[in-house]
Amino acid sequence: MATKPTDLDRMTEPCERCGTETHHDVHVEIRTESAKQKNAQFSREPYRVATCQRCGDEQSQRMNNA
Description:
Layout (H helix, E strand, L loop, with lengths): L10 E5 L4 E13 L11 E9 L5 E5 L4
Antiparallel strand pairs: 1-2, 2-3, 3-4
């Protein structure tokens, strides 16, 4: 039997644009940082991406600050 997602299934975080705590969709994506084609395959980094469900504002943070 399938279940419907509840508010408990979503992340609540502060949203700078809304100015309050709102539900966010959070995922990790790999982004290429180098604009040079030769180095692009070596410049991929993981980013945490959070999107506000109220206003659609997207915040991203590099997860690997070595």
